Amino acid sequence: MKKLLMIPGPIEFDNDVLAAMGKQSLSHVSPEFIDIFADALDMMKKVWMCPGGQPFIMAGSGTLAMDMAGANLVEKKDKVLVVSTGYFGERYARLLERYGADIRILQAAPGETVPVESIERELRIGKYKILTFTHVDTSTAVKVEPEPLGQLGLKYDVITVLDGVCSVAGEEIRQEEWGIDIVLTASQKAIGVPPGLALLVASERAMEKFSKRRNNVLNYYADWANWLPVMQAYEQRKPAYFGTPAVNLVNALNISLGQILSEGLERRFERHRRTGKAFRSAIKALGLTQIPEDKYAANTLSAPYYPSGVQPIEFLQAVNKAGVILAGGLHPALKNEYFRVGHMGKITPSEVITTISAIETALKKCNYKFDDGIGIIAARDILK
Ligand code: PMP
After folding, report:
1. C-beta separation of 340 from 141 below 8 A
2. Nearest atom (ligand 1) to Cα of 64
3. Is CATH 3.40.50.300 the right assignment for the domain spanning 264-383?
4. Considering only CA atoms, which residue is closest to atom 4 of ligand 1?
């Protein structure tokens, strides 16, 4: 039996996207592939809402996209402020240390964000070059509002890096309007393509900072000096080579970005908002709480605590038996206290209902008491 994959990436993928993966591989310098790549780069600028940005498509996971921003923008002793709202903020700090950054972490308690005033206070006194933050931290389901941080970046001449692995093409992002220098992501979440692509759009300001580096980039594979001429050549519909692109994944990306744009970004953001709200409402109706308060809660995933007496393994196995795959906890401090439901990309109302129904079946199996169907009704009221 096919099970519904409702983890926060990889997600359920569209059949046309999957079919694109299965086509015979094209030569990466063929006119046909050059057009596919060029169109994907062009569509990225639209999806990121960054018409003046420089897009990059690389073979690799989201961590490579994080690494690419770090390797190309950070030099030894550069001051970096990392806003951490969970596991992936922490990862960014560890990654940037490798490039010799002088790092300060502003750490939020699980479920909370760092107040904008605290970030501004630090930027005012700190002479920072870079500010990183995680738009949606997949370990806590906490969402950080990017716009005020983009504005702070402009005010204090600090390059802003948004880790959008769990948000791009799901949560609202207006990169250029909000003044965010780097928006990075991976293919396997709301972008809707199987794992394997690292995606990033850099602002003109970020590319200018890169061009003024004092030293060579320490990471050979991620060095923009190698990749920028390749991206520019493809944009001009000319062949180029540095490392062989993941041609089948790029083909799938081209299809998925086309689907995202034909749905329309505003409609897509709204659909994710509604889906997020439906899950939150169902969780509440079932008497469960989740890690973030509603005001900080992401729309791309939810992170509910297990009710007391419900054992993680028993619950997740029962959900699986009911036909849905969910994820366990990830935040080291709370790992066994909560589970995660990914709800992004092409997810439909019927998939939302199926997932909540499987959660209800599993809770029942774990002897948790609630009114049958109450979560489903709560979600349905929002989705109708
Ligand atoms: N940042 C965030 C917010 C993520 O959710 C993830 C993956 N779950 C990553 C970075 C790392 O991406 P990947 O696993 O594709 O390397």
Report:
1. yes
2. 16
3. no
4. 165
- Name the residue with tokens 């995202």: 260
Which residue do the tokens 């309007």 mark?
177
- Tell me the CA–centroid distance for residue 135 and ligand 1, in Å: 11
Structure tokens at 273: 């908002």
Q: Rounded to 5 degrees, what angle do the CA atoms 326, 330, 336 make?
A: 80
Q: pLDDT by residue (tens digit) across 122-146? A: 999 999 999 999 999 999 999 999 9
Task: For residue 281, give the amino acid letter.
Answer: S
Going from the Cα of 162 to the center of ligand 1, the distance in angstroms, rounded, reads: 12
Q: Which amino acid is at 245?
A: P
| Ligand 1, atom 12: closest residue by C-alpha | 62
The string of pLDDT tens digits covering residues 208-229 is 999 999 999 999 999 999 999 9
Q: Is the C-beta atom of 196 inside 6 A of ligand 1?
A: no
CATH number of 15-263: 3.40.640.10
CB 181 within 8 A of CB 206: yes
The model's pTM: 0.98
Strand intervals (E) in 236-362: 301-302, 324-325, 327-328, 339-342
Where are the domains positioned within the chain?
A: 15-263, 264-383
The CA 254 to ligand 1 mean position distance, Å, reads: 21
The residue nearest atom 15 of ligand 1, judged by CA position, is 62
